[in-house]
Amino acid sequence: MERNGDGDEENLQRAPTRVRSRPDPFLIVCKCFSVVVALTAFLCIAVNILSAVRSFKNGSDVFDGIFRCYTVVIAFFVVLAETEWGFIIKFSKILEYWAGRGMLQIFVAVMTRAFPDTSGKRKDLVLLQNIASYLLLACGVVYFISGILCIGFLKRARQNKEVSREQAAKDLEELERRREELEALLVQERV
């Protein structure tokens, strides 16, 4: 508290408090990895759609086409799990845990790699299948090992801490705004 020059009024001189929080580098890395996994899963979806269309066009590989359709659906769940959409996590609790996500990604990678074109007619499609499956396999292994090491638990704890910090900053800004409004009203009443 400081007295103003006249000495009869108390004037609270406060610097506006601004809470600046830097984003958590660990959470940024986790988000980037989620984007990589989602893009890899999209690649698996595209490759499996191309394989399914080719299988249905041939007519002789109907079972391979059906298998590819199932792979597309399951790969879509991998993408949805990476968005961490509340409905999906509530629907399938196993996807909340990184070891479960990793196993699902490994499963999709194996399904993408299964039934390669042995005739050698479509080498470009086989190459894309290999790239997509091995990328998703690597992501799945990273998720699985991280899940065993409880890195997912650490991520959720840091996310909760960040949400609490952001809410506290919003509450503080609201209180500051309200204080300024009340001070303005008080000044108007004195005049």
Describe the structure.
The chain has 191 residues and is mostly helical. It has 2 domains: 23-149; 153-191. It contains 6 helices and 2 strands; from the N terminus they run ββαααααα. The protein has a two-stranded antiparallel sheet. α1 (25-58) runs antiparallel to α2, α2 (62-83) runs antiparallel to α4 (98-113) and α4 (98-113) runs antiparallel to α5. It is elongated and about 90 Å long. Residues 1-13 have low confidence and may be disordered.
Summarize this structure briefly.
With 191 residues, the protein is mainly α.
List the helices and strands and how they pair.
Layout: E1 2-3, E2 10-11, H1 25-58, H2 62-83, H3 86-91, H4 98-113, H5 123-148, H6 151-190
Antiparallel strand pairs: 1-2
